[in-house]
Specification:
Helices cover 53% and strands 9% of the residues. By secondary structure, it is of the alpha/beta class. The protein folds into two domains: 42 residues; 197 residues, Adenoviral Proteinase, Chain A (Adenoviral Proteinase, Chain, 3-Layer(aba) Sandwich). Strand 2 and strand 3 form a beta hairpin. Helix 6 runs antiparallel to helix 7. The longest helix has 26 residues. The protein is globular. 31% of the residues are buried.
């Protein structure tokens, strides 16, 4: 019989005709004192820091759950579309937890400024969103889809600029090959049998679009919320990236030649600041193998508010 059962039993005795018995009163008081003493011993056996960490962790967990509920309320505008954002998935807390276990950092408080209305998204926010989508794809068993970090293509572009300025082709190619191995091959972010690669593309911190490389047919399709007129800037960097990737064993089919096209009928932005949010939404559709549709200003505002809530909660 446990402590609680004995207390209840003694309490019952106290309500009977013998409740005035001095002996029962003494036994009852001693039992309550001993139970409280045991509880205090358990608490005191834990280090002060550990007790504090557990308390802070519980408070933080409840705060995060409340923030996630608020975030998902901001996504009600997506209810009318046939596709739900990854942020509105029922298992998003698990997606977030798995993502935080694999990435090195989270968006900082400074990144909140880019989520204000009228501001442009930074690469850090887009990188974090791509990490969430990568986890979402993995949880669904879609191992043949690769989602690159925005910095990947940017590094190739910088290397091409360095090559044009210095002419040191051998050292530039060696540096790029090392980067491709560490970022894409070593941990198989891009798998040898992968069939699709999503590539965030940025035009000198001016405009974002996303490319989808369909490996079996060596075709790259650009999804741009501003007409796609500048997609030609990314042909050479993407070809260079895949050419280096094809030098590794098992990746030969990435060698090309590659063809490029702009996807027609893509939802278009009506302002000059929401291209980063559009490519997050485009990628959200493409992860599930769907064409982006039903994305308008109201839904983009909902996505901005939801991302703001998420980043603020993570602080």
């Amino acid at each position: 019989m446990g402590y609680l059962e004995l207390v209840l039993l003694l309490s019952l005795f106290r309500t009977c005709e013998q409740r005035h018995s001095v002996i029962l009163q003494i036994l009852y008081s001693l039992w309550v004192w001993w139970g409280a003493h045991l509880v205090q011993q358990v608490i005191r056996s834990q280090p002060v820091g550990q007790r504090k960490d557990k308390l802070n962790g519980a408070v933080a967990s409840r705060a995060l759950e409340a923030s996630l509920r608020t975030m998902q309320q901001h996504l009600h505008n997506w209810g009318g579309s046939r596709h739900k954002l990854v942020l509105s998935n029922e298992d998003f807390p698990c997606i977030l937890n798995d993502t935080l276990q694999t990435i090195k950092g989270i968006p900082s408080a400074d990144d909140l400024l880019c989520l204000d209305d009228g501001a442009c998204l930074t690469g850090e926010i887009i990188s974090f969103y791509m990490s969430l989508l990568r986890t979402h794809a993995a949880r669904k068993g879609n191992s043949r889809l690769a989602i690159l970090d925005p910095q990947t293509l940017a590094q190739v572009e910088l290397a091409q600029v360095e090559l044009s300025l210095t002419g040191r082709e051998e050292s530039v190619q060696r540096s790029l090959k090392d980067m491709v191995f560490r970022w894409l091959v070593k941990h198989q972010l891009v798998k040898p049998d992968g069939d699709r690669v999503l590539i965030p593309c940025n035009q000198t911190e001016f405009h974002w679009m996303i490319a989808e490389a369909i490996v079996p047919v060596t075709r790259v399709r650009f999804y741009c919320s501003n007409g796609g007129s500048s997609s030609g800037l990314f042909h050479r960097p993407i070809e260079a990236l895949f050419k280096i990737l094809s030098t590794f064993r098992g990746y030969e089919r990435f060698g090309g030649p590659w063809s490029f096209e702009n996807v027609p009928g893509v939802p278009q932005q009506s302002d000059g600041c929401s291209c980063g949010l559009y490519i997050c939404a485009f990628a959200d559709f493409l992860v599930d193998g769907k064409q982006p549709t039903g994305i308008g200003p109201a839904r983009i505002l909902s996505l901005r508010a939801a991302q703001r809530d998420l980043v603020r909660a993570l602080q």
